[in-house]
Design goal:
Order of helices and strands: EEHHHHHHEEHEHEHHEHHEHHHHH
Structural class: mainly alpha
Helix content: 55-70%
Distance between the termini: 79 Å
Radius of gyration: 30 Å
Length: 453
């Protein structure tokens, strides 16, 4: 392999000759061996869009000459078309405030732009990563902005995936509307409900969680770009911030606007923590539904056996014919990870000091991972599990008839004490409440049937 010497403020670094990154990145990849994962595609795209928008704003405010500015814009356009993305090599969790990734971006864009200007990689006297690509910027305002953009981009795919689940649950609520069953509280038999009403409640909970996630986007639309190092906009030309954010909003197709309090946007990570919290709350609701389905589908002989689940693959390598709720189990594991990711985000959100929260890369990794899992798996979970659920009508009806707890429905007619006596007698003799009530001439079958309506 051939190498070149690339130089930064600390000195010279040996870099692969064909690499478009430079000295800062070369140092960073020797330090940040953390996740083994390179930057998320949406983070790369967000950063390149930011650099492009900054270059346009710098040209419009006369802070940079058109030759360099246009070369930066052209370099960004090449990367946004899918080229050079393998050159973004810094680990997803890297330096505080994401400085290493910001510089990885600056160096790649700089060297691509140098080639556009018919110069060699590393000839930074013509177009410099810091002086030109990073002009009017700091890691402290670009990374927070990129966080918001990348998360918003992921949410554009995640929210429709949640809506697919809502649609599937709502469909089952209607399909199961006439299927009566025993409700349960404390895992014990309670009053009758319908299987449809149970799924309708699931639909309500996921809809509420989705609405909170939609609302969380509003805070993320306020971005820090233009705040530079400490939120006072140092080293930015007049008019730069407004132009840069307008350009970024246009190219990203997101409704972005300047955060009114720039110091807040660097100090606080409330918008990100708020979105992560909404993802956690969604995961809590989905996880609860997955647990219920696993229990209702348990059996088919020794369990509840109220629901039938579609077989997506063999359930066991040793027990022939076994069908497991594998997709519900996978969904549970995803939910556990989202909850864990939110814990990491929560600690990071309060882990900053004074004018800057530096825990940004770890926070972003967690939120993007959570949204990735949801947008990837929810459509599968909905189509291959929820849509294929069937109701065991016979089992549901038997449970109602055999459960002594339905004596509660008789209480207004025969009183609490008499009902309690019937409950105990049913458990002792094995006779159903219906049999006892009819035999004792307390009510007729027709009267009992009317209670279940």
């Amino acid at each position: 392999m051939k190498f070149r010497l690339d130089q930064d403020s600390l000195g010279k670094v040996k870099i692969p000759a064909d690499a478009y990154y430079g000295a800062f990145t070369g140092r960073a990849i020797n330090q940040y061996h953390v996740t083994g994962n390179k930057a998320h595609k949406n983070l790369i795209e967000a950063f390149v869009m930011i650099k492009r928008s900054a270059a346009v704003a710098n040209m419009k405010t006369k802070a940079i000459d058109a030759k360099r500015g246009k070369a930066i814009v052209s370099a960004c356009d090449k990367i946004l078309s899918g080229k050079f993305t393998e050159q973004f090599v810094v680990d997803m969790i890297n330096s505080g405030a994401g400085t290493a990734f910001n510089m990885n971006s600056n160096e790649v864009i700089s060297n691509v732009a140098l080639e556009i200007l018919h110069k060699k990689k590393g000839q930074y006297e013509f177009l410099h990563p810091n002086d030109h690509v990073n002009m009017s910027q700091s890691s402290n305002d670009t990374y927070p902005t990129a966080m918001h953009v990348a998360i918003l981009m992921n949410l554009k795919e995640t929210i429709p995936a949640v809506e697919i689940l809502i649609k599937s649950l709502s469909k089952k609520a209607k399909e199961f509307a006439s299927f009566k069953k025993i409700g349960r509280t404390h895992l014990m038999d309670a009053l009758p409900i319908t299987l449809g009403s149970e799924f309708a409640a699931y639909t309500t909970s996921i809809t509420k969680a989705k609405n909170n996630l939609v609302a969380a986007q509003k805070e993320l639309q306020n971005v820090a770009l233009g705040g530079t190092a400490v939120g006072n906009g140092a080293n930015t030309p007049k008019g730069y911030r407004k132009i840069a954010i307008a350009e970024l909003s246009k190219i990203s197709k997101l409704k972005l606007k300047p955060e009114p309090d720039m110091q807040f946007s660097l100090q606080s990570k409330y918008p990100v923590a708020n979105a992560s919290g909404a993802l956690r709350n969604l995961a809590l609701e989905i996880g609860k539904i997955a647990n219920d389905i696993r229990l209702m589908a348990s059996g088919p002989i020794a369990g509840l056996a109220e629901l039938g689940i579609p077989a997506v693959h063999a359930g066991s390598s040793i027990m022939p014919g076994k069908v497991n709720p594998s997709l519900a189990e996978c969904m549970n594991m995803i939910c556990f990870n989202i909850i864990g990711n939110d814990t990491a985000v929560s600690y990071a959100a309060q882990g900053g000091q004074f004018e800057l929260n530096v825990m940004l890369p770890g926070m972003l990794k967690s939120v993007l991972e959570s949204t990735d899992m949801l947008k990837n798996f929810l459509p599968i979970f909905s189509a291959n599990l929820i849509d294929g659920l069937t109701a065991n009508k016979q089992k549901l009806q038997e449970n109602i008839e055999n459960s002594p707890v339905i004596v509660t429905l008789l209480t207004p007619k025969i009183g609490y004490l008499k009902s309690a006596e019937l409950f105990k007698e049913s458990l002792k003799t094995g006779k159903t409440i219906r049999e006892l009530v009819v035999s004792k001439k307390l009510m007729t079958n027709k009267e009992i049937d009317s209670l279940f309506r």
